[in-house]
Amino acid sequence: MADSRGSAPPPPPPPAPEGEKPKPAGKGPGPQRPPARSRLIVWVMLGALLAVFFATTMMPGENREEISYPDFLARVRGGEIVEGEYNNNNGGIKAADADGVLYSSNGPLPLPDADIALINRSVTDSEGSPTFRYDTPQTNFLLSLLPLLLPISLLILFFWWMQRRATGQMGSIMSIGRSRAKTYTTERPSTTFDDVAGYEGVKSEITEIVDFLKQPDRFSEIGARVPKGVLLVGPPGTGKTLIAKAVAGEAGVPFLSVTGSDFMEMFVGVGASRVRDLFESARKMGKAIIFIDEVDSIGRKRGAGLGGGHDEREQTLNQMLSEMDGFEGSEGIVMMAATNRPDILDPALLRPGRFDRQVVVPLPELSDRQSILEVHIKGKRVTDEVDLNVLARGTPGMSGADLANLVNEAALSAVRDGQDAIGPAHIEQARDRMLMGQRRESMALSDEEKEAIAYHEAGHAVCAAVLPTADPLHKVTIIPSGMALGVTMQLPEEDRHIYREDYILDRLVVMFGGRIAEELVFKVVSTGAANDLMQATALARSMVREWGMSTEIGPMAWGSQNQVFLGEDLMQTRDYSNDTARVIDEEVERILRDQQGRCREVLTKYRHGLDLVARALLEHETISGGEVQRLIKVSRSVRAGSDGEGAGDGMGTVGVFDRTDRPGVGRAAPTVTGRGRTG
């Protein structure tokens, strides 16, 4: 699930027809293009000019036989030429004989008098009149200029094209301050609350925004003021943007969508200009919803950077604060924004009158996950064995985006296996890939390494299976996955929101299971528990510093570590003395050593079960949590038969196979404990 003060922006575009892409709001028309008719006239004139030029230069002439001037005179003396013409400008001669054959020649300029007399005597008609003419044609001014018109026209066309490019670039520069918000009209978005699976509490909380946009008179009659701004807060992938579109779709008002990064540009003042243009466009629409995604990119606390308080981002934020104060709730404009980091937003942005209300969009609960899976499974072939309720129970802590990716990965896995439908095995493979990483089955491990990894994962598995408050064991594998050489996966029975101290202590015991198993079996430890030790140390430190789970420290917390880039921890690193720091370190060490001792006791008691689980892993490489419990039960039966004792586990009143149901008190993601890379 899930701006610079200048010329007024153009009016909003009309609603886009169905199927067409909506035009961005706030963008001006840019440079005015010449009308289509003017452009057509220019091209017609250019084509006509080219046609005349080529017609005059390439038009075929008369078919005349070229002869030399002495040959022409010889034909004149012989009486063959009956008519002709001499050009006084270039000396060209055109003639014809009695048979109609045409001749052409070039004579001297001017013709000698003797030649003229010869031609006049010989070229006559039947009555003796001369038929040879002497012509001096006048030069055609247009035809003489025609060869020059073509290059001149090409130059004019080139400069005209350059001017248009310069005008377009200038228009782009002048419109750089316009908003880049995408406008969706009443037809778009067509998303409604029915398209948002789950999140009934979130939808009911923002329904009054829809009611206000539809029927504002109901609120104004009694003087109620609807919040100007609604901030959607939640982890990534929970569908905050989808919910904002659903609000616009339910209300039937224009929806202006923009991301925080769209306000940033290399030019100073562009962000503030785009903010002004965005709000001006919304006012012209009357009722509208302005949605800013990732608002933390421009709404970060002011004065927190090292470069002073006058950078472009802060000026953009100042303009947004001013614009949000500049419109009244009665105008019908509602601001919506989404972020997954509300702690870094400027307090002025969150005060009443701006973003009055924060709507938390959390990770989906069990029922929400099932609804989301039903949406994403539509259009995909799924076998009858796939139970979405079971799948939803096995995916705690996953967001809507994670669930969509899970279904898609399962479909890809089915295609790779050559199946025409998604089965439970494909979903299991997809979940393992998301939680543990891609399997590296081709990785070559020696027998000694495989045995060490098997006992390491068996240690985790045995501790997870026998401890009363640990999450149920799902599966164990020694096939390298992602960056781990082996993985032990636990899936919580229910969503958790808080964690009890006994649960955390048992979790520490499970983390130490791999290291202690290696120590008990091989009498030496390895580097395989590096990741386990890091997680255990961080968890124990949080118990002491943040959660008050230490008798020496008491009910005190020093867990608020602000980010350095906010400028609040630049001059100080901690707010407690060196003596307190020493006590914290001692308490962390005490907790870790105590749970390490508990882990050693558990694995010593279930040493035979540890061997059985390790052998099963070496044989099958992957076994389920149920198989681990069966092997532990077998080991207890064997031990009871050999020493005559009962099958008690010594872990208190709650045994391994009579685990009592505990009410879930929070959300817990699947716990993945594994042997890290050696080296």
Structural commentary:
- The protein is an alpha/beta fold and 679 residues long.
- The protein has five domains: 57 residues; 71 residues, Signal recognition particle alu RNA binding heterodimer, srp9/1 (2-Layer Sandwich); 179 residues, Rossmann fold (3-Layer(aba) Sandwich), CATH 3.40.50; 71 residues, Helicase, Ruva Protein, domain 3 (Orthogonal Bundle), CATH 1.10.8; 229 residues, Up-down Bundle (Methane Monooxygenase Hydroxylase, Chain G, domain 1).
- 45% of the residues lie in helices and 11% in strands.
- It starts with 35 loop residues before the first helix and ends with a strand.
Task: Give me the secondary-structure topology.
Blueprint: H1 36-58, E1 65-66, H2 69-77, E2 81-87, E3 92-97, E4 102-106, H3 113-122, E5 132-135, H4 141-174, E6 182-184, H5 200-205, H6 207-214, H7 216-220, E7 229-233, H8 240-251, E8 255-259, H9 270-285, E9 288-293, H10 312-325, E10 333-339, H11 347-350, E11 357-360, H12 366-377, H13 388-393, H14 400-416, H15 424-436, H16 447-466, E12 473-477, E13 486-490, H17 501-522, H18 530-545, H19 578-605, H20 607-620, E14 622-624, H21 625-643, E15 671-675
Helix pairs in contact: 1-4, 6-8, 9-10, 12-14, 14-15, 16-17, 16-20, 16-21, 17-18, 17-19, 18-19, 20-21
